[in-house]
Amino acid sequence: MKRWILFLFIAVIAAVLSACGGNEEEQQDETSQDNQSQEEQDNGGNSGDSDEEQTDNATEEEEVLVSLNDADGQVVATATLVKGKAGVDITLEGTDLPAGTHGFHIHETGTCEPPDFKSAGGHFNPTDANHGFDDPEGPHAGDLPNIEVAEDGTVNEEVTAEMVSLEKDQDNSLYKEGGTALMIHSKADDNKSQPSGDAGDRIACGVIGE
């Protein structure tokens, strides 16, 4: 009889302990789930911020590549345009070009029809200014510093177009209606002669944004 009572007492104690342990595990599970949910919310918010930052960075680091062809349709240079601190930074790399100093401009129409590339129109000039950095009423927005081609026909130059933008809603945007183009000329730009610096023939042309 005493043994039976002892066994019953032990069984009751075991059941009570088991119930308490189950409640603690449930409480721990609920606490863990709450913490995980909070972390997911926090991470979700941070993830959104990160995605937004990545999108902003991608916009800031966006590159515009322009291939410049000669009169025979051969690619002789590639320009990379990016938004810079003082306008649009242009990096020009090329081969098989005539050695010497050459005029380098942004033209007002995004069409490059060989062999003379006159389809690109005149210099990009949204402010209706005179041509040339040496003209007191200049320069055109599309006027750029001359480039130097080495004896082996290669060029690697970096210039900044301070008066233009890659933003499509700006008056000086290179993505204006009808587009714009990059042009290399046969001679140096004297930075004062009207309307284009006496830079000679157009020897290479590339549409911006094509």
UniProtKB/TrEMBL annotation:
Region Disordered, residue ranges: 24-70
Coiled coil: none
E.C. code: 1.15.1.1
Protein name listed in UniProt: Superoxide dismutase [Cu-Zn]
SUPFAM superfamilies: Cu,Zn superoxide dismutase-like (SSF49329)
Signal peptide: 1-21
Family according to the record: Belongs to the Cu-Zn superoxide dismutase family.
InterPro entries the UniProt entry points to: SOD-like_Cu/Zn_dom_sf (IPR036423), SOD_Cu/Zn_/chaperone (IPR024134), SOD_Cu/Zn_BS (IPR018152), SOD_Cu_Zn_dom (IPR001424)
Catalysis: reaction(s): 2 superoxide + 2 H(+) = H2O2 + O2
PANTHER family referenced in this protein's UniProt entry, alphabetically: SUPEROXIDE DISMUTASE CU-ZN -RELATED
Cofactor(s) for this UniProt protein: Cu cation; Zn(2+)
Function: Destroys radicals which are normally produced within the cells and which are toxic to biological systems. May play a role in favoring mycobacterial survival in phagocytes.
Stretches with biased composition (Acidic residues): 24-42, 49-64
Cofactor note: Binds 1 copper ion per subunit.
GO MF annotations, alphabetized: copper ion binding; superoxide dismutase activity
Pfam family, one: Sod_Cu
Residue ranges occupied by any Superoxide dismutase copper/zinc binding domain in the UniProt entry: 78-208
Keywords: Copper, Metal-binding, Oxidoreductase, Signal, Zinc
